[in-house]
Amino acid sequence: MAKDTEISYDINLPYTELTEETSKSTKYPDYLPTWEKIWFDTLPPFKFEDPALRVKDTSLPNLLKAGTKVSHIQPGLGAILEGVQLDQLDNAGRDELAYFISHRKVIVLPDQDLIDAGPAAQQGFMDYFGKRNYQPVSGTVKGHPGFHLIHRDGNKEEIARFLEAKTTTTLWHQDVSYEIQPPGYVMLGLLQGPEVGGDTVFTATDAAYKRLSPLLQSFLDKLQAVHTSSKMINHVKAAGGLVRKDPIDTIHPLVRVHPVTGQKCLFINGEFITKIVGLKEPEQKVLVEFLLNHLMTGHDFQARVKWSPRSIVLFDNRSLIHSAIVDYIDEDHGAKPRHIFRLCAMAERPIPVQPEHTANGSNGHTNGSN
Ligand SMILES: O=C(O)CCC(=O)C(=O)O
Ligand SMILES: [Fe+2]
């Protein structure tokens, strides 16, 4: 079977075989995608309490100990956290980590021992933050189907084919937004990457919401969107790939309230939304285009993460939209290998704006900011 010609998140079709060259150039061969024939049922409803809500002391003494350095990536979002090893955190430290991510949205932890601790330790760490996610179609680590693997080995034809129809490889999305209880905290772990390029960009969806006029905010507050995995599943089926879950269509609020910060966040992406409930097609088209354009072009509420060796990035999928940057293609030799694992922790059902809350960007219970 041919390799997928699409660069799409949540899709990652099987290789016919890994070429010798790929196997040789891969630093972490145990993390090359595998396609085990396992069937996953739709995740049934579950109770979720955000670990950040257990934090009492917002100076975060169990996370930000002496010797820890916090450097903000941008004033409004993003932080590099040095001097913390994730695998050393106790439960109080993990709760505070959740609080820290909720407020900074995306954090980078360079040189993490957890990168070399193996899939069971990595999955175990993320299990603390929410339920495991099993992707309907993506390749995973053998025996650890909660992993989603991002792996490009230098096949420039794949990217070239994609660019025959598209003008950029950038694909802004929220992860797995079609699930009834989509991911909150998400881990990306860098196994191997190019020296330069292959960054990941993030936009704060609460800041983006705040920039809109109160009149538009209050209109959006009442809207709902249909998120679906069926387009992706059909694409994979048509290409002869392995599907491991039924498709799902879920109606979510277009504006969701963050359970920790209380902020209202735009919940829209270009990958999985098929319909805005109650709007006519042309109305929907204009509205979705406007909102996506607003999110994509608002560089004053974005952060760009540069990867360094053995980095782990943790981000909040509820208050961000993100994209990989596939800019590391060498015209002569193809892309440099880039190999990342993703683990999603499924969280609350997106909280709609309550009618009594006016469009002032907040829904009540904020906890301050770090
Ligand atoms: O490769 C990256 O930087 C991000 C990948 C991603 O967003 C995903 O797999 O969902
Ligand atoms: Fe993603």
UniProtKB/TrEMBL annotation:
Domain (TauD/TfdA-like): residue spans on this chain: 70-343
Cofactor annotation: Fe(2+)
InterPro entries registered for this protein in UniProt: AtsK-like, TauD-like_sf, TauD/TfdA-like
GO molecular function: 2-oxoglutarate-dependent dioxygenase activity; metal ion binding
Pfam families reported for this sequence: TauD
PANTHER family reported in the protein's UniProt record: ALPHA-KETOGLUTARATE-DEPENDENT SULFONATE DIOXYGENASE, ALPHA-KETOGLUTARATE-DEPENDENT TAURINE DIOXYGENASE (AFU_ORTHOLOGUE AFUA_7G06030)
Protein known as: TauD/TfdA-like domain-containing protein
Species the sequence originates in: Rhypophila decipiens
